[in-house]
Amino acid sequence: MGSATTLAPEATIAELVRSNATTDVAEVLTWVTEVAELTRPEAVVWCDGSQEEWAQLTSEMVEAGTLLPLNKDLRPGSFLARSHPGDVARVEDRTFICSENEADAGPTNNWRAPAEMKAELQPFFAGSMRGRTMYVVPFSMGPVGGAISQLGVQLTDSPYAVLNMRIMTRMGQDALDGITAGSEWVRTVHSVGAPLEPGQQDVEWPCSDTKYITHFPDTLEVWSFGSGYGGNALLSKKCFALRIASVMGRNEGWLAEHMLLLKLTDTATGKDYHLSAAFPSACGKTNLAMLQPTIPGWKVETIGDDIAWLRPGKDGRMYAINPEAGFFGVAPGTGASTNPVAMETLWGNTIFTNVALTDQGDVWWEGMTDEVPDHLIDWQGNDWTPESGRPAAHPNSRFTVPIQQTPTLADDWYEQDGVPLDVILFGGRRATNVPLVAQSLSWEHGVFVGATMGSEKTAAQEGSVGELRRDPFAMLPFCGYNMADYWGHWLEMGEKLGEKAPKIFQVNWFRKGADGRFLWPGFGDNSRVIDWVIRRIAGEVEGRETAVGTVPAEGELNLDGLDLPAADLDELFAIDPASWLAEAELTEEFFAQFGDRVPARLHQELETLRGRLSA
Ligand code: GTP
Ligand code: SPV
Ligand code: MN
């Protein structure tokens, strides 16, 4: 790592920035200097992404009390971080899209005019890094130089963010070297908003009560203030790879999506397929990305678990990459029985945030093991026993782990220009209405299904868990422009791809019986659904057309060895026209808030759906 410069006190900020800079690109140097002049850090470090840098940062953070080293025999190279109790999830009500025109942000985003927001932020960022080090973190989303890849730089005063960025992105000198005079790259600035006065003792998790997660799509900038957590602080992730990239994609003819990415190989024929799936936060992407089939005939390999960038290739097909290099996954519910691949991936080199600590110095969370330890230190650092009556790990506690540790990682993750996409799934948590699986009747119908997706809220966002909300394409909190224009962009992509477009299916692992239990076993058994999906696109099964799409005909879904009561199977595919018509009513209200920006084709899809339901 570039060592922190210590210059004479009278040295200028420009000297501080330039004295150990690892680039001579003027745009980068000027921007870093401007931000440093505003935020007044005590030192500036240009990160190179090396192992030595990792070792130095982690030891500094252990010293400072921000990281707790885990037992080296049980979890080598791993650390636990406990956040401030008020800084545990993305803050959607403090997230802003600052496009020139309010209408371009659309009704689902908070909006401020760019100049107005810059002025509002100014006093917060002024001197916000005093007493701290500013890290310059260059990163590539996707392989450096790949056809779908993009470059960015994050300036941050959080070493926790630096460590996470090193896992989550291809961070370091190669990325910085990719930025040349006049090239396109995304500028992101992050401050925890907790300057230190001379001699002031730091806290374990510095952050501010005031938070701003702001995006400037016209100038490809992100400014984030006050939070150290996940999507608020690792700006490569939701801020860049979804909100800013979705706008870049609209302008340049590609898509930035909240999707996992999988490779499926038919073991009998050797033929392979690629599938992506958009599910809202904490609705099963990481789990499906690491699927272990419970039926023979398929090899499933992981490419990505949260974000996919999709771009038409030279042959007219849609190509996809996972722009990330690690997983920032939900810990609770991850265990040997639900997601053994994740458990293996987490053997070491992992940063855990807000999970519980065992007496042996290892981690624990609800659902990790069937047996609950007698004693733990909970996510807030307090003694915990099974009688405590509160979760030991925060429901949105997470692990950050390098993707290369995944035993099921597909070679395709390394593909410079991405993989051809065959299938797209849309899903959410729906206790009712939505069947286990249904193929869309056309690309346009698929876009309608994506646009009208709903899901029950989870702990990944602040607010009440369980409440049903519309979450189009699982992008509600992540689309950087007007959602209705985004639907139009999807329709256009379909027109461009024509017959070569991936096929769209809707899935729902979360349908419940009248008694409130999940009807479908989920997890590895989701392979049964994927098996039908692939056999459907391969033309091996016919399906049965319903009002909401094509579902498996009697006997087509492989249920071998599954103890699923016939009544549950019926209920999983039950389509109640009255209930769907009521939902169509709500869809009309939902569309209304976007006014005349809703593509006419989607209104038409709503009418034909109503027609099919009434037939
Ligand atoms: P983000 O990282 O927030 O975007 O979440 P994600 O979509 O990757 O969700 P993840 O796979 O981490 O799953 C979230 C929760 O859903 C975990 O508690 C899982 O155990 C649970 N879950 C995942 N798949 C299934 C399933 O097939 N059935 C049921 N019932 N639960 C599931
Ligand atoms: C999500 O909430 O969808 C996540 C976690 O994947 S975060 O990085 O915080 O956005
Ligand atoms: Mn996510």
From TrEMBL:
Domain spans labelled Phosphoenolpyruvate carboxykinase C-terminal P-loop: 254-610
Protein residues bound to GTP: 282-287, 398, 429, 523-526
Intracellular or extracellular location(s): Cytoplasm
Keyword Transmembrane listed: no
Highest taxon listed in the record's lineage: Bacteria
Cofactor: Mn(2+)
Annotated binding of substrate, by residue: 90, 229-231, 281, 396-398
Gene3D superfamilies assigned: 3.90.228.20, Phosphoenolpyruvate Carboxykinase, domain 1 (3.40.449.10), Phosphoenolpyruvate Carboxykinase, domain 2 (2.170.8.10)
Pfam families xref list: PEPCK_GTP (PF00821), PEPCK_N (PF17297)
UniProt keyword Lyase present: yes
Residues of the Phosphoenolpyruvate carboxykinase GTP-utilising N-terminal domain: 31-250
Pathway: Carbohydrate biosynthesis; gluconeogenesis
InterPro entries: PEP_carboxykin_GTP_CS (IPR018091), PEP_carboxykinase_C (IPR013035), PEP_carboxykinase_GTP (IPR008209), PEP_carboxykinase_GTP_C (IPR035077), PEP_carboxykinase_GTP_N (IPR035078), PEP_carboxykinase_N (IPR008210)
Record field: catalytic activity: oxaloacetate + GTP = phosphoenolpyruvate + GDP + CO2
UniProt-annotated catalytic positions: 283
Keywords: Cytoplasm, Decarboxylase, Gluconeogenesis, GTP-binding, Lyase, Manganese, Metal-binding, Nucleotide-binding
Cofactor binding notes: Binds 1 Mn(2+) ion per subunit.
Binding site for Mn(2+): 238, 258, 306
Annotated function: Catalyzes the conversion of oxaloacetate (OAA) to phosphoenolpyruvate (PEP), the rate-limiting step in the metabolic pathway that produces glucose from lactate and other precursors derived from the citric acid cycle.
SUBUNIT field: Monomer.
PANTHER family associated with the record: PHOSPHOENOLPYRUVATE CARBOXYKINASE, PHOSPHOENOLPYRUVATE CARBOXYKINASE [GTP]-RELATED
Family designation: Belongs to the phosphoenolpyruvate carboxykinase [GTP] family.
Designated name of the protein: Phosphoenolpyruvate carboxykinase [GTP]
Source organism (scientific name): Leucobacter iarius
Lineage, highest ranks first: Bacteria, Bacillati, Actinomycetota, Actinomycetes, Micrococcales
